[in-house]
Amino acid sequence: MQLYKHQGWEQLPVLFYFNFKKKEERNEKIVLVSLAFLFVLVGCGQKKETGPATKTEKDTLQSALPVIENAEKNTVVTKTLVLPKSDDGSQQTQTITYKDKTFLNLTIQQKRPVSDDLKTYIDQHGVEETQKALLEAEEKDESIIEARKLAGFKLETKLLSAKELQTTTSYDFQVLDVKKASQLEYLKNIGLENLLKNEPSKYISDRLANGATEQ
After folding, report:
1. What pLDDT is recorded for position 63?
2. CB 203, CB 106: distance < 8 Å
């Protein structure tokens, strides 16, 4: 009995040690497995969060596109083009205002050398008196008087110097009766109806392709 008891108590610490070690190893395995499982869960959670965020960004961009396109269509654009000089030394500057596919306004400023007859008059009377004479002549010109009665059309003639004359014509297409204007003597050869058949952006790109420069 003493031997058994002695052997039992002698073996008890050993058995307890092995049982404790096994339990400790099992606990470590459980902890490791739990950590690994938790890592997988966190990883999956992050992937799930990334997916919807990307989709939301795409949806936001797609929903913004119609707004941007609509804003572009409603934007009033003004372009100023300087055309190449002609053989006689005259040069034209066009200022085009449009919205989307509609012309709103066209202003044509043309500078040209004075004619020989006008130069002779300037030599005799000076620039200031010649300017007055030009305005008086326009006031008596039936074709100009008729054109100036049209709403949306303006004409201005200015003697810049003893050598250069400038004529500025403006067409406000929002109020101008283009069909009627095209029948008038002073405006019938301008080609307003043909102009309005073009899209403004196409008209501008064609001018640029033919040597015009944008200011």
Report:
1. 67
2. no
List, as own/partner pairs, every contact residues 144-150 make where C-beta atoms lie below 8 angstroms and the sequence separation is at least 24, other chains included: 144/186, 146/184, 146/185, 146/186, 147/181, 147/184, 147/185, 147/186, 147/187, 150/176, 150/177, 150/180, 150/181, 150/184
Per-residue model confidence as pLDDT tens digits over 29-75: 544 445 444 444 445 455 445 555 566 766 666 666 666 666 678 89
As a dihedral over the C-alpha atoms of residue 95, residue 165, residue 187, residue 200, rounded to 10 degrees, the angle is -10
* Nearest 10 degrees: Cα torsion 132, 138, 139, 145: -160
Torsion of CA 66, 71, 74, 79, to 10 degrees: -130
Q: In this prediction, what percent of the chain has a pLDDT beyond 70?
A: 67
Question: What's the token pair of residue 56?
Answer: 């939301």
Whole-prediction pTM: 0.68
Partners of 96 in the beta sheet?
79, 106
Mean pLDDT of the chain: 81
Q: Which residue has the higher pLDDT, 154 or 41?
A: 154
Q: What share of the chain is helix, strand, coil (3-state, %, to 5)?
A: 55, 20, 20
Specify burial of residue 122 (Cβ count, 10 A radius: 0-12, 13-18, 19+): buried
Q: Residue 186 above 90 pLDDT?
A: yes
Burial class (CB in 10 A: 0-12, 13-18, 19+), 103: buried
For residue 141, what are its two tokens? 């010109």
